[in-house]
Amino acid sequence: MFTRQELQVIGQTLAQKRDWITKNISSAEGSARIQMEQNLHTIESVMQKVSAQLRPAPATNEKTTVNHYISEKSISPIRQAALARRQELPPGQIRVLLVDDDQLIYELVAAYLHESGIHLIDFASDGMRGISMMYEANPIYDLVLCDWNMPGKSGIEVHSAMRAAERYMATVFMLVTAVSEAKQIRSAIEDGVDDYVVKPIEQDKLIKKIARFFPQVGAVEAE
Q1: How far is CA 220 from the centre of its chain?
Q2: Architecture of domain 85-222 in CATH?
Q3: In DSSP terms, which residues pair with 97 in a beta bridge?
């Protein structure tokens, strides 16, 4: 049996898949279209069953005691599941996207990550390409390291585009930047950016910041 939280996560994941198929099915042809139609039918069937299990139980005549209290801000089921997954995710399974218009920065950061055991690294040379790669990725990226100031789409715009996709709500997003103005950095954090790394990038500081979100990276460093 699934817990209510797990059913909510499953339902949201299926909804995302259903929406993607609905959006793309008209452009598919032949066997691909048939397969998408079958998948859509299966998804709709499973979603109905999930919804049925999530419905509250019928009310009874028994008296219940209600405790009134102010609860903490709730965390979405998707984010809860992602937080739990991060705790056990080994460095070798962390999927990273580096977005930077400077090839040298990419090579430097990639070398630092490789030394910490992180090897699943993709590179986008500009913000628009980074957004495209995030939307096409399957499975999604666990960590996005993105330059702040780039031609075209800025790091802030890349972050906004990422968060607009529900499946990326829990992905860790770090800005890599030469910006040191506290007000600008604070504004970015308030907008949902998880952390930032100031250039010139120092390996120890970068890995420590990543280890805050992926503890197994820190465990490897400590060995």
Answers
A1: 23
A2: 3-Layer(aba) Sandwich (3.40)
A3: 122, 144
Angle at 155 between CA 157 and CA 120, to 5 degrees: 115
How far from each other are the two terminal CA atoms of the chain, in whole angstroms? 38
**Each residue's pLDDT tens digit, 105-157:** 899 999 999 999 999 999 999 999 999 999 999 999 999 999 998 888 899 99
Beta strands 120-124 and 172-177 are: unpaired
Full DSSP string of 132-177: HHHHH-SSPPSEEEEESS-SSS-HHHHHHHHHHSGGGTTSEEEEEE
Where are the chain's structural domains? 4-54, 85-222
Asked if 9 and 77 touch (Cβ cutoff 8 Å), the reply is yes
Q: Which tokens belong to 82?
A: 């992602």
Residues whose CB is less than 8 angstroms from the CB of residue 142 and which lie 6 or more positions away in sequence, other chains included: 86, 89, 94, 95, 96, 171, 172, 214
Beta-carbon contacts of 104 under 8 Å, excluding residues fewer than 6 positions away, are none
Phi–psi pair at 64, nearest 5 degrees: -125, 150
Given a contact cutoff of 8 angstroms between Cβ atoms, the answer to whether 2 and 10 are in contact is yes
* HEC per residue, 9-51: HHHHHHHHHHHHHHHHHHHCCHHHHHHHHHHHHHHHHHHHHHH
CA–CA gap between residue 151 and residue 54 (Å, rounded): 46
Assess whether pLDDT exceeds 50 at residue 72. no
DSSP state for residue 103 in the 8-state scheme: H
